[in-house]
Amino acid sequence: MSSTKTQPFSIVIFGASGNLTSLKLIPALFELYHHGLLAEDFSITGISRRELSNEEFADKLFTDVKKADRCGNATQENWESFKSHIYYLSGDGNDSDTFTRLSEHLSQMAYNNGTPGNCLFYCSVKPNLFGAISANLHNSGLTKSDDPDQFRRVIIEKPFGTDLETAVALNKELKQYFTEEQLYRIDHYLGKETVQNILALRFANRMFESVWNKDNIDHIQVSVCETVDVGQRGGYYDESGAIRDMVQNHIMQLVSLVAMERPKSLSADDVRDEKVKVIEAIRPVCENNCCCSVVTGQYTSGSLDGKEITGYLETEGVASDSITETFTAFKLYVDTPTMKDVPIYIRTGKALAKKTTEICIFFKPIENPLFKKECSCNSTMNSLILRIQPNDGVSVNFFTHKTGQQCLEGRELTFYYPDFCPSPIPSAYEKLLHDALLGDQTLFIRSDETEAAWRFISPLLKSIKEKNKTPMPYAPGSFGPESSDQLMKCGGRSWKNQ
Ligand code: BG6
Q1: Helices (H), ranges, 368-446
Q2: Fewest C-beta in 10 Å: which of 78, 139, 273, 434?
């Protein structure tokens, strides 16, 4: 992460009473502050409908900051100095009066606290408020500054639409008020250190770059497995499902980083240009036979790690006859010269056996092998495992000669980030908030990226809906329904579950 200090700024968080603010945003800002990465002069203003004083708001935040504290920095003393930068305004994104008060408040901040008009607006609200907040910011003159050296930026949380049409409409609406350079669409997966490392690993190492193509790669697996169930989010999730919640954004981003061509430079636009090309080149998923069908699943009730799990259909906020998927798996192809015909299998789901986000690259076996069949491993393929979380790191699997015998055995070389990081790896939100304050858009989604992802996902969702496809039940603590394993078996492969 860059050690550059930000300029003085004001950050305004809409949706300040939500979990994201207290569990992710404030802890991230606190860490940045503690590490001296924020300017001396800054203010954080939370806005939500609740009536709270500055003091009450800050006290409420401290409880969560202490919970999120990874290295004991959240002492009362450290908090007191950070707290002096925190303000609260009771207001509503739909109400123009809120923005008149906000405008006065920001002028006051600029006067009192030396935050000379640099503003970052964070929309941590329901998507139906994005438009109203943007329009109100615009109408109160907050989206532009007369001084070209001052920045006005806005961070938008997902979901960016619910299908292609709504995503296009949202982009159109936002662009009435902001330029693309002011818009920071956040996908927290891009802030994860191990995700950022994909590009370094691929393009800074000849030994990987030279084999990263269809001639050498047999297939790729992208697994984002979660042990958590839907919990309190039934209402949101039932409208969304795994494909909208995880595939359209996080998994599409992982696929684009893994399959993209070498960018001309690491500038935001060069990197994003290459990512868009990948997403646009994804072949529509066919539904003609089980080998290429889209698997959908829904967890039943059961237990996981000794905890009772309420079945998805019995969850509060979920329709009792819901066919929303809590699991999905399918195979896709990226039709670029380098990746054409390399199967990329993706899967994601809730209430699964273990929490793991991994990208596994399996390389084709050696042609005409000289050595006898390996003794102790059942794969004939080398593999490279990019472990995004947990145990962030990289593993390389290869074969060695088995001592005293005429055969091979599998070996693994593993690198764990924490072993080489003097302090805990910065959280995704630390990295992304810092980048947004510095004006670096590389790890934020451009409008054409999100539209390209919907261009692939929307027809897939439509076809699932038209078929009125009932998700296959799976037990909590499993790796999803049987049909997910069938999908792999059909290609003579299996999921890497260990
Ligand atoms: C969010 C999804 O974007 O990502 C959640 O809405 C999901 O449903 C979460 O649990 C997973 O993030 P992470 O960082 O825990 O892998």
Answers
A1: 417-420, 428-438
A2: 139
Torsion of CA 267, 192, 346, 472, to 10 degrees: -140
**In this structure, what DSSP letter does residue 383 have?**
E
- The pair of structure tokens assigned to 129 is 């408020």
In the block, residue with structure tokens 């939100």: 429
Residue type, 328: T
Question: Which one of the listed residues 85, 105, 250, 434 is annotated catalytic?
Answer: 250
Q: How far apart are CA 47 and CA 59, in angstroms?
A: 15
Predicted confidence at residue 288, as pLDDT, reads 60
Q: Is 226 in the pocket of ligand 1 (CB under 6 A)?
A: yes
Give the mean model confidence (pLDDT) for residues 139-143. 94
Q: Which candidate, 491, 445, 456, places its Cα nearest to that of 257?
A: 445
Tokens of residue 234, six digits: 């039934």
pLDDT tens column, 367-414: 877 776 655 556 789 999 999 999 899 999 999 888 887 788 889 999
Per-residue model confidence as pLDDT tens digits over 290-332: 566 899 999 999 999 899 999 999 999 999 999 999 999 999 9
Residue nearest to atom 9 of ligand 1 (CA): 246
Two structure tokens written together for 168: 């296009």
Atom of ligand 1 nearest to the CA of 250: 3
> Quick one: pLDDT at residue 2?
77
What is the rounded distance in angstroms from the CA atom of residue 14 to the CA atom of residue 11?
Answer: 10
Q: Is 250 a catalytic site residue?
A: yes
| CB of 245 closer than 6 angstroms to any ligand 1 atom | yes
Cβ–ligand 1 contact at 229 (below 6 Å): no
| Distance of alpha carbon 295 from alpha carbon 407, whole angstroms | 38
Residue nearest to atom 13 of ligand 1 (CA): 189
Contact partners, residue 344, CB within 8 Å, separation at least 6 = 219, 220, 221, 222, 255, 258, 259, 331, 332, 333, 334
Q: For residue 345, report the distance from its CA to the centre of ligand 1, in Å.
A: 19
3-state secondary structure of 52: coil
Q: To 10 degrees, the CA torsion angle through 376, 381, 382, 387? A: -90
For the segment 213-225, the average pLDDT, to the nearest whole number, is: 97
Rounded Cα distance, 123 and 471, in Å: 33
